[in-house]
Amino acid sequence: MARRIPKPELELEPEVWLRKLPKVELHLHLEGTILPETLVALSERHDAEPLTLAGAQQLYRYANFHGFLMAFKAVTERLRTPDDYEFMTYTMVRELAAQGVVHAEVYISFGILNRQGRLAVDDVMLAIERGRTRGEAEFGTTVYWLIDAVRHFGVEEAAVVFRAAAAMRKEFPSIVGIGIGGDEARGGADLFRELYEEAREAGLRLTAHAGESTGPASIWSAINIGAERIGHALTAKEDPELMEVLAEKQIPLEMNVTSNIRTGCCADFDAHPVKEYFDRGLMVTLNSDDPPMFGSNLLGEYILAYERYGFTLEQMRELAANSVEASFLPAERKIALLQKVEQFGW
């Protein structure tokens, strides 16, 4: 029998309570938010033989982390005009709002855009901003952008990405930070040390994917180059000293449970360390990564944490507060959101 909230007068099932809980998403890839239905609509715009829904859904099936990267590539190749990016962004904001997400900090892969070479980054950014502002006006969910470089494309391509982010934030204040994604095994974080220092001096906030598909050394490297938040950190549990440092410094961890299972980076749900990290005092946040590709979304991750990992509703409130605190929002907005989270449901 499903547990109920310890306030009978609310008469809400946990899923409804969790949907209404104000939530912040910190680890979400814009290109990874494309729903199969959206992909079909894009295909109808551009392909001589448009994808069927079944054909689109097949692109979201893969066996391992490499297969996921190939699936991600296959989906993003359907983004062929700036209007496609506007449509995708607006749809993302709508879907976030429906889950009770009040703010999101979303990765955009300039690295992939530059490698594809089909569209000018400036044109894409203008379109994305149109989708963001329209979505925010209609649904109330705010969005910041994190500009992502693909680490296995190399340092030179990352330099182009980060310098573009620094230049464009003057026109687009919604660009707040940078990060590195892609294959950790082919691009250690230490290679990007100087670029991260340059980005920091330009006023950008720093994140890094680390410890997703390789060991804890990758997380150490991300910390050492100044990453303020760590995406995934799945393998931190293999290093006791690292666990102590993460707990002591309260470095926010952008955890993505379903993502880690679907990509094969974690063997199964029982093996995932999300509850262990929380119980040991690490600053855990819940995120969805690439929702349609993993069959989940942020609300689904909150429900999963409650039902499978035994987080209490008060602990779910703490997870929501962690995400607010770890965000790059200004102090006054953080305080307002934290008050909403703390007062919610009581």
Description:
By secondary structure, the chain is an alpha/beta fold. It has a single domain, classed as Metal-dependent hydrolases (TIM Barrel). Helix content is 51%, strand content 14%. It is built from 17 helices and eight strands. It has helices spanning 14-20, 36-46, 53-59, 65-76, 82-98, 110-116, 121-139, 155-168, 193-201, 217-224, 240-249, 257-262, 274-279, 291-294, 298-308, 313-326, 331-343, and strands at 23-29, 101-109, 142-150, 175-181, 205-210, 229-232, 253-255, 284-286. It has an eight-stranded parallel β-sheet. Helix 10 links the parallel strand 5 and strand 6 (229-232). Helix 1 (14-20) packs across helix 15 and helix 16 (313-326) runs antiparallel to helix 17. The protein is globular and about 50 Å long. The two termini are 23 Å apart. Residues 1-10 have low confidence and may be disordered.
Secondary structure layout plus pairing:
Elements: H1 14-20, E1 23-29, H2 36-46, H3 53-59, H4 65-76, H5 82-98, E2 101-109, H6 110-116, H7 121-139, E3 142-150, H8 155-168, E4 175-181, H9 193-201, E5 205-210, H10 217-224, E6 229-232, H11 240-249, E7 253-255, H12 257-262, H13 274-279, E8 284-286, H14 291-294, H15 298-308, H16 313-326, H17 331-343
Parallel strand pairs: 1-2, 2-3, 3-4, 4-5, 5-6, 6-7, 7-8
Helix pairs in contact: 1-15, 5-7, 16-17
The CATH first-level class comes to Alpha Beta
Task: Assign a percent range to the helix content.
Answer: 40-55%
Could you name the CATH topology?
Answer: TIM Barrel
Strand arrangement, major sheet: 1-2-3-4-5-6-7-8
The SS-based structural class is alpha/beta
The ordered H/E elements are HEHHHHEHHEHEHEHEHEHHEHHHH
Q: What oligomeric arrangement do these chains adopt? A: single chain
Q: Low-confidence segments, ≥5 residues, pLDDT <50?
A: 1-10
According to DSSP, the number of beta strands is 8
CATH-level-2 architecture: Alpha-Beta Barrel
